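Action item from last week, closing it out:
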Amino acid sequence: MRVIRNRSVAALLLALAVAPALAGCTVAVVDPSAGAPSAQRTPAGTADGAEGSDAGLESPPAYAPAEAGDDDTQAQREALLAAVDTTMLCPDGPLTADGDIVRVEGHCEQLVIEIDAGVVIADDVDALTLAGSGTTVFVENVLELTVTGDASSVFWSGSTPDVSDSGAANVLKRG
């Protein structure tokens, strides 16, 4: 009887230890002009072609509309504009000035940011790609947003863009 009870306790402890690692997350994409948020998991595909398991699924990250306190975001943007290190028109290649505050003026068809721990302030961008980590981006209007780095923030003023976020701990929202 004691062996069965010990095995039951061991199985319960093992289940409690493994459960957090196997738990999935649900996220929502929120666009106030589109109505209710949606949450879904989509197949991401795997190198070994595994099917029928959660191994090949990725959850889209959460995006949130501006809230009442987001005036702070605009105030931050304005303060950073006064501290800009470099002002330029849309660059031909990626931005790589780690730690700098960069102002990109005018329209960009494609803006690639490979900056770590920097700030980019842009106007209108069709396709924005952020590969740096710890970077903050303020953009007026953006149609497509791709984030592959971690711990970055992207704030936009216009409509919610099509977003792809394969990084971790990113904040992506209107603000």
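Closing note: Residues 65-175 form a domain with the Pectate Lyase C-like fold (CATH 2.160.20.70).
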